[in-house]
């Protein structure tokens, strides 16, 4: 089932062009990458989509495209070009929405990558084509469900590891979105392939439930622990101060790039409050 259909090929070419631009021009990367503060405070919702075409390097790009190559052709042939494109884009946005929720208290958190969309393709393939097998690097042949399970475990490890700029959290959101979209397109798959779907979905659901219950499991994200009382009042004050500084810098960057008229009424009011706060801090 290896190969690209027309949509898979267009996705690969699009990612290559956008990744090249992002690697060549840092301003381009900064403008279009996924960043919590820019999305939540500046309402730059387009980043939920644009970040999925950027990558931190050619190795990152190559890995995502290799996974897509292993799954895209069979799934695109099964769904058709239009439905495959819709599933890919919905998985991309769904993955980034989960990342936005998990990292909502880290305004400076940023990531890039087609991970969410690719995970959606992988898990849709598991649901719709459970008997499919794929060969990794021409050496190891795995059933699609085993590949998906391995993909989830690597993603969970990546979320808890140090920040690499890779959107590991988007993997899980994309995987869930891909399964939901596949079930919506072909409802029979839930009943026919429920064992395979559960094998792939349970680790994801279990980890997300753990995160909801104990947010501090996200290692390296100090801010997730403040509600559990693990830090002093000074720690909490410093975290809040850093968040406000980041928010103010983002608003000022927007003015620098597009002028003061580019700010909405809400953003101007927020900037005025932040400016007053900063003057009090500096006094």
TrEMBL record:
It is found in: Membrane. The chain crosses the membrane at residues 6-23, 48-72, 84-102, 109-129, 135-154, 166-185, 191-213. This is Rhomboid family intramembrane serine protease. Gene3D superfamilies: Rhomboid-like. Belongs to the peptidase S54 family. Residues 231-276 form the DUF6576 domain. It is a multi-pass membrane protein. SUPFAM superfamilies: Rhomboid-like. Pfam families: DUF6576, Rhomboid. PANTHER family: PRESENILIN-ASSOCIATED RHOMBOID-LIKE PROTEIN, MITOCHONDRIAL, RHOMBOID PROTEASE. Keywords: Hydrolase, Membrane, Protease, Transmembrane, Transmembrane helix.
């Amino acid at each position: 089932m290896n190969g690209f259909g027309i949509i898979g090929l267009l996705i690969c070419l699009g990612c290559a062009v956008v990744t090249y631009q992002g690697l060549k021009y840092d301003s381009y990367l900064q403008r279009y990458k996924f960043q919590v503060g820019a999305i939540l405070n500046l309402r730059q919702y387009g980043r939920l989509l644009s970040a999925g075409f950027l990558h931190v390097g050619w190795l990152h790009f190559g890995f995502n495209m290799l996974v897509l190559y292993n799954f895209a052709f069979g799934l695109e042939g099964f769904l058709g070009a239009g439905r495959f494109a819709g599933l890919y884009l919905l998985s991309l946005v769904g993955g980034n929405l989960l990342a936005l929720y998990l990292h909502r208290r880290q305004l400076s958190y940023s990531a890039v990558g087609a991970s969410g969309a690719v995970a959606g393709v992988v898990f849709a393939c598991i649901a719709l084509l459970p008997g499919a097998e794929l060969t990794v690097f021409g050496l190891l042949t795995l059933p699609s469900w085993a590949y998906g399970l391995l993909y989830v475990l690597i993603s969970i490890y990546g979320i808890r590891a140090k920040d690499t700029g890779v959107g590991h959290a988007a993997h899980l959101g994309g995987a869930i979105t891909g399964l939901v979209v596949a079930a919506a397109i072909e409802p029979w798959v839930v009943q026919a392939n429920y064992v395979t779907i559960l094998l792939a979905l349970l680790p994801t659901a279990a980890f997300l439930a753990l995160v909801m219950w104990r947010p501090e499991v996200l290692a390296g994200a100090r801010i997730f622990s403040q509600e559990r009382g693990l830090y002093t009042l000074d720690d909490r004050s410093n975290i809040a101060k850093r968040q406000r500084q980041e928010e103010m810098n983002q608003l000022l960057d927007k003015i620098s790039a597009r002028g003061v008229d580019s700010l909405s009424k809400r953003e101007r009011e927020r900037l005025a409050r932040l400016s007053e706060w900063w003057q009090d801090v500096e006094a």
